[in-house]
Amino acid sequence: MVILLTILHVIVAVFLILVVLLQTGKRADLAGAFGGGGSQTAFGARGAATLLSRLTAWSAGIFMATSLMLALMSSSSTGGGSVLDSAPASTPVSAPAPATPPPTAPTPVPAPTK
Predict the structure, then answer these.
(1) Cβ(53)–Cβ(23) below 8 Å
(2) What's the rounded Cα separation, in Å, for the pair 78 and 94?
(3) Are the CB atoms for 17 and 56 separated by under 8 Å?
(4) Distance CA 7, CA 102 (A)
(5) Which residues have a Cβ under 8 Å from the Cβ of 12 and sit 6 or more positions away?
(6) Residues 30-58: tens digit of each pLDDT
């Protein structure tokens, strides 16, 4: 099931990229280049939804739905916990080692006698 959903997710992602790239931007005509062609509305003229804009909306919705389903399936397959839950327990930190006493001055060695 996860493999089928992943394949569908990739296909929808590629389709969404293609549909977005095929659309023309707002004011893509010659009048838009020189500031004309707009209306008095705040965000410009709003035309009827084209087939490409509807395909974009539907594919974006399907993409989000498959993303959520894949996320839920992956969290349930790991037991619903964190990655850190499966990590081995760490050893407790012991008290620091006592400080070593400063070195004492060496005792003089007696000179050899003849």
Answers:
(1) yes
(2) 33
(3) no
(4) 69
(5) 59, 62, 63, 66
(6) 555 566 555 555 555 566 678 888 999 99
pTM for this one? 0.55
Tell the residue number behind the tokens 């996860």, with chain if given. Answer: 2
Q: Token pair 């005509």 is at which residue?
A: 29
Q: Which positions of the chain have pLDDT values less than 50?
A: none
> Which amino acid is it at 16?
L
Reference 74, options 85, 82, 64; nearest CA is: 82
Tokens 């916990």 found at: 81
| Angle, CA of 94, 95 and 101, to the nearest 5° | 135
Q: How many C-beta atoms surround the C-beta of residue 66 within 10 A?
A: 19
Cα distance between the two ends of the chain = 96
- Angstrom distance (rounded) from CA 73 to CA 50: 35
Torsion of the alpha carbons at 24, 30, 34 and 40, rounded to the nearest 10:
-60
Would you give the DSSP letter of residue 96?
Answer: P
